[in-house]
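User: Assemble these into one structure.

Assistant: Restating your components, then the assembled model:
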Amino acid sequence: MGDCSSDGLPGGGDRMTAALNADQITAFERDGFLVINDFADLDTCAALRDAAGQLVDAFDPAEVRSVFSTQSHSYAADRYFLDSGDAIRFFLEEGAMASDGALDRPKHLAINKIGHALHTRAPLFRDIANDPRLTTILQQLGQAEPWPVQSMLIFKQPGIGGAVVPHQDATFLHTQPVSVIGLWLALEDAGPDNGGLFVAPGGHRGPLRQRMVREGDGAEPRTRFATVDETPLPSYPNDAVYVDIAAPAGSLVALHGLVPHGSTTNRADVSRQAFMLHVVDRAAQWSDDNWIRPA
Ligand code: FE2
């Protein structure tokens, strides 16, 4: 068994240098999630934020204004999303867009996320996705052959960064058996005050509730949600099963594909950027009706 050894950082921090220890693996199996402190150093976090900022620099909001205008046909928006699996595409905060698609603030403060192929198309993000430590961690957490299939940079803009309602990642990335693990790298300090994650410990032992399936191939692909199990997901914040996660910049949160989780609206005056990588096991059976068509 490898270990997560400390390299003696000041302040007692443990830089994640090798692999998970037995307690961490046990915690993931028990809770369905694991916070791994100091996976990335602060310089790496800053470089990834800069790289994301450069992508936004080059982005012309007019490209998507017509796509996401509430007056346009939703098909265009569906297509923009469905074709993003092998592309770098830009998704704006609804709260920053007028009905004609015009932005009410600078684009850098209006962007919700970039997705969904940063891990193959953006060099620094590709480096992170190919970090051998990730392969080791994912294998320790049960994947025989980790296969990154989706990535996102989530901005969580100050004041408006939209909430993500409780969900299971296997709803969106399905294999048989369920194998997806979400890796959530905090690029800035994240907590309950600025739109941080909440998770239901142990909730991964419950069933998959629904799947988002792609259908209507050809000219007009679309998605729909199919119920798999009627058991409702606990709601947030009403249901006490959830715990808020404090994830300092550089920490990596691993999420089991069935564990209910989400994040709150960011009401703070600082952003809360995070890089998300979703990885499935190539040894599991990929479901061809997943929304994304990975290369
Ligand atoms: Fe998720």
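The longest strand covers residues 146-154.
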